[in-house]
Amino acid sequence: MITDRRQPGTWPATGYEARPWVRSGDETASRRALLQVRGDYRAALPPLIAAVPALPDPETIALADDASRELARFDAEVGMIAVPFALILLRSESASSSEIENLTSSAQQVALAEIGRSKSDNARLVAANVRATTAAIELSDRLDGNSILAMHDALLRDTAPEYTGRWRSEQVWLGGGGISPHDATFVPPHHTRVPGLMADLVAFAGRTDVPVLIQAAIAHAQFEAIHPFPDGNGRTGRALLQGMLRHGGLTRQVAVPVSAGLLHDTNAYFRALTEYRAGKAEAIVTAVAEATFAAIRNGRALVRDIQAAAARWDSLVVARSDSSVHRVKEYLLRQPVVNTRTIAAELQISEVAAQNAIDKLVDAEVLTQSSAGRRNRIWQAPEILAALDAFGARARRHHG
Fold first, then answer.
1. Cβ neighbours of 316 (radius 10 Å)
2. Three-class secondary structure of residue 41 per DSSP
């Protein structure tokens, strides 16, 4: 039995240790600047939490319980709707998580990236984040070190494959100068400590004596304190949060876009991560719970907008019940930018049938052509793109 004499509402704080700084010799800076970064620096030393009782104060527990009930309710009600909202909400979660890292892109560009036709680097990064979140959910039945590495690989394998497949092997830091960690805002633990800290985090994530939302919030904050990768920690950490919500059974059908709630007030989110390191775990639990309420309000509005568009399309498109145009309509709800090749491949129909369906939808003003000319044509569903962009606008209304 674990015993703990801490009072509810306390959590072991992150410590710090002195580490010697060894210059690489490749630094480009003035002699004065180089002289100022000599000597030891202080690296974080996060506590081991695998066996620490999670003891938030009663008010935080009650808030987390309320948020958990809302999560389960929203998951159940959206899961009963026939149209494919799981992927819509997953993309919305991934776009919001990316925007927290200042990676912004329109819904149109993200949809273009998903069919390999976007020229936007940010859009391709958001599409990669969709893969990372998908991996987190698919691997949620076995949350371990390998599954976290797989999430990170899904995120960065196309843009920074040199960082994937392993924990970091160098010191990283946030803020401050680029030549040393001496003036950094935060210096995560030395890389030699990362494997042990991640094994401890995985052990904490596997516990069954902590309420799921509280456990997921704390695990996310601990992950960010460890910062186990050279890049992609924020997005991978929020994908892990989604995986833990699924692992714990709070979500079964959809990825509730919690990151959209965090995006609503990123300053409060980053403050909560800082307070977690100071031994105030209730701050990040509160931030995730409040983000959950905001995300569900926004998610319900998105669902209503998509349903309204689908209903309008049904009233405009007249075709036999077995016509492929109906399947294309449903596909557009989750992939609002298409070409004949992607429709044919996804629905396993001929490109001629795909083009015939597109033509019917253009005549009904469901689709508009978004590329010039007759070669490599692309069509888009403006109502779905508008709904997705409106979701993003609501999420960032008080951003910053």
1. 14
2. strand
The CATH code of the domain at 15-300 is 1.10.3290.10
- Residue 94's pLDDT is 95
Q: What is 306-391's CATH number?
A: 1.10.10.10
Question: How far, in Å, CA of 341 to CA of 215, rounded?
Answer: 44
Residue 22: what are its φ and ψ, rounded to 5°? -110, 120
| Helix%, strand%, coil% for the chain, nearest 5 | 60, 5, 35
Q: What is the pTM of this model?
A: 0.91
Distance CA 216, CA 99 (A): 21
Lowest mean pLDDT segment, chosen from 321-325, 344-348, 358-362: 321-325
pLDDT score of 400 more than 80: no
The DSSP secondary-structure symbol of 188 reads: P
Count Cα atoms within 13 angstroms, Cβ side, for 208: 1
| Confidence at residue 22, expressed as pLDDT on a 0 to 100 scale | 79
Q: Count CB-CB contacts under 10 A for residue 152.
A: 28
3-state secondary structure of 186: strand
- 40-45 and 15-20 as β-strands: parallel, antiparallel, unpaired? antiparallel
Instruction: Give the position of tokens 């020229």.
Output: 119
Residue ranges per domain, the chain? Answer: 15-300, 306-391
Tokens of 317: 């498109």
Residue located via tokens 């210059």 = 23
